[in-house]
Amino acid sequence: MEDEMDVMAILDMVSSGKISPDEGVELLEALKASHPQKSTPYEARDTRRIADLRASLEDIGLDDIDFEELNQLRNFGLTPEEVREFNELGVAPTDLEDWESVTIHKVTPSYIREMVDAGLKDLNIDELVNARIHKVTPAVVREFTELGYVDLPMDNLVEFAIHRVRPEMIKEFKEAGLEDLTTDELVECRIHNITPEFIREFRDLGLTDLRMDQLVELRIHNISAKLLKAFRDVLGEDVSLDDVIEFRIHRVSPEVVREYYDLGFEDLDRDSLVECAIHRVSPEYIRKMRSTGLDFSIEDLVECRIHRVNAEFVQSFLIDELEGLTLRDIIAARIHKMPPEFPVAYRQAGLPNWRPSSIGGYYHFQVPAEYVKGMQAAGIVDEKEIIKAFKAGVKVEEVQTVLKNGSDEA
Predict the structure, then answer these.
(1) pTM, two decimal places
(2) 338, pLDDT greater than 70
(3) Helix axes 196-203, 225-235, angle to 10 degrees
(4) Number of domains present in the structure of the chain
(5) Last residue of a domain, one of 104, 122, 152
């Protein structure tokens, strides 16, 4: 620590002119000789350079700097000449950290002059360091200017570099028909991988006026010109991009559309195709439902899917005991979670209203068919009254007795 303070004291005298650099060298050599067992933190013969560096930094207001910091800047390659040039250019760093940044990232006065000559103005140290980090060169700046991107802020140039927006890419976009793209749009093209070739493929299909927001949406949904053509081959030339986007969202593919057609649903419109996808009415589901022997419309199949009616459930109701049952009845049974045994019991009891759509309330409260039959025979036919009596534990015989006594009294 004392050695370092002595070194700095000598350097102070050199930089202030109290002693000459040669005298400083002699003093430093003497200091080194007086402590042979210790290694000096500074090479005495570099006195003139370090003294000049210290003086140049003091000239721009950096006078609170210790030996270690000064020596570190020298080791980074900073010279007194560069300090003076930075100051003349009006961009001299005001703290040690910034000086370290410009030397580490090779922000040289010549680089700054070239950037200014390329058209950049009012640059600050942070912008210049950022430009160097992301390899923004004067040549690239000039190329952007020639393409019409004049006076671009450094933030835009750095963003271009980060997303690899190159001048040649802009030229290709112009050739593909996209003129005057904004800086944000160019970056968006790179983010979403919108290439000139991607645009040309859609132009070949007649889509010559696609906006940037449309191109971005196409990329987001992974829609290519090839996919659009495939849908048009199946559904006709009037298929729009909005149609394909909706198909893509709901995972409707040209191959699936062909499968629907092969199953006899050639008249499916685009809304119906989307509805089938939403409710998972797939070709495979249709084939399984048809294996029951019933004929289904698309509307039937959608309703079946909504109520989770599958082929196995349908098949369980297609038995002799329930002959004449309709699809509506089967869907009603599914809604009430009713097994086929329940309507079979009601039909075998001779009840006229035995269909699932008519006996859902009875199933909910597990009212036996014979109880309903007995109550109806006793003259009580209202469903709510029968259910109420059943829940209250009223027996059929009790009702019959009461009704008989009332009849006798009359």
Answers:
(1) 0.67
(2) yes
(3) 20
(4) 2
(5) 104
